[in-house]
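Re: folding output
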Amino acid sequence: MILTVTPNPSLDRTYEVPSLDRGEVVRATGERMDPGGKGVNVSRAVAAAGHRTVAVLPLGGAPGALVADLLAGQGIEAVPVPVTGLTRSNIALAEPDGTLTKINAPGPEITGEEAEALLAAVGERSAGADWIACCGSLPRGLGPNWYAHLVARAHAVGAGIALDTSGPALLAALREGPDVVKPNLTELSAAVRRPLATLGDALGAAEELRGLGAGSVLASLGADGQLLVDASGAWYGTAPAGAVRSDVGAGDASLAGFLIAGGTGPRALASSTAHGAAAVRLPGSAMPTPSDLVPSAVTVTADVPVDRRLGGPRP
């Protein structure tokens, strides 16, 4: 069972538009509405793959109630922690050439009591979890050390801890030794405070995060594939994505694929790469099912091409 924690969930509305013309009336050609937030997306991908998942998240107001309903409709067991603020609503505008414009709301401000209730809910539901995935930005009211507290508490129950966040929250949590961290290239670059132009640069940055406490680093490199670095070595995974329809949630699908395949080694990297490649071919933040995956198209190698230059989209 994979338990996910999403401190700043959302109600995501995606509109497919023929073009985005500022100041004009734009008529959508397609639309969808999904429960959102990085941890929520991981749960959705895990459920789509046929595995059990539990999603712990703060929810407030009518948007929060709708998120809970949407999760239930996808067969996901939700553990809502009531908050006084309204769950945020996000909008994504997808153009035919793959260009995606996103408008993300800030979300509610979480009180001290609500923050503690969220930690308590994770503790209550973590028994029997193989992995606890802590994902996404922190809402207002939660300081950068909140994930560090969560990782410390989660380790106490013996589950593996996967962390997908960025900035000060990522750096603070590294001190508690999360088993897996999953930055994208932009987040990896920000964490080491330098540009990463090649795959070798990304490899060095991943090793630096390991030196700060991460057990392994699963780096999403967009069109340039994925990189896994752990105590036993490094592996590089690629798969042709084809036409990109939407990259919303592609990194979350990758993390789900990694965890359901055991969360370690080249087999898990292959699953992660297949899930990420499948996700970008789907509309909005739709998560891939087994029928969407093309495992035969995935290549994983320990011979990392360190001179390869990076520059693809960043899921």
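--- second protein (sequence, then structure) ---
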Amino acid sequence: MNIFVKKSFLYTCLCALLLISCKKEIEKISDTFKDTSSIESPAEKQDSIKKDSVVQKESIPAQMKDNGFYGAFILPKDKKLRDSMFSVFSKQYTEKERYAILALNRLDSKNKWNADTLVVPVKIDTTLMAYSPFPMQLDVLSPVKKFVVFSYPIQAYGVYSNGSLVKWGPTSMGKKSAKTKTGLTFANWKKKLAISTVSSEWKLPYNFNIFNLDGIGWHQYDLPGYPASHSCLRLLMNDAKWLYGYADTWVLNPGGATTKAKGTAVLVYGDYKWGGRKPWRKLLDDPNANNISVEEMTKMIEPSIEKILQEQDNREKVVDSINAAKAVLEQMPQTPKAIEP
């Protein structure tokens, strides 16, 4: 009986040892598979890079079926790949087309590196007019000779002459901690090169003041693809220069103490969706995502139209009066200079 018990005990121990040994071996094999499966072979790694490259290249330019739709130009985070993609971007599009694409993304050439995705229209209109978020015609503005509107929600400006949209473009308005003042205002004074009151290092080409006491105006400065200014309305250089020549300044009384007439009417409205998706990115889902309806624009302008027309009429009278006075002075005979003996 004792011999039988001893044999059974020995047999049990032997089986246990075999099971433990097998378990350890299985674990080793399992670990080996885990390690090797997580490491790509050089060939697999190369194939992976090739596949990624193909995916990137296929997205440039985006293939869309209908005119008016947009595609995405994806930019990788890796610097070398990013440089390569911008090289493709430069070869794919002309200088004017690149300018238009960046403008649609609220960027200038200097700040294009800020983008991780560029919204690109299938058919590029270098004037941007084909992509205007503003209505092409506003009857409420028909009697208004010049009108400029800045939209905070979509970071864009529009220019109307007698109700017809003549120009629009991108802007970068006040950041969240220094929002741009909104409401109806009028263009005041202008200066080809102003120096910022915030920092003397900031040069502001083609500066046009619209809120005099607040020191707020539009001018050329960096467009980084989001609201970034210290309350002013940043523009591309070409746009700042164009608006500098387009808008009318105020007319001051002799000595400059009071205003005889106001300049071009300007409306700044709305607020930016801070922390949300950039408005122009929505064009990838809906080409009309940024469009402002005639009804919406009319509703915003109508309460101020009487004031706008009143100031326009006053300015015309003041300018006519000044021109008439100049004409009289020009017709007056010049006093001959006394001849010295």
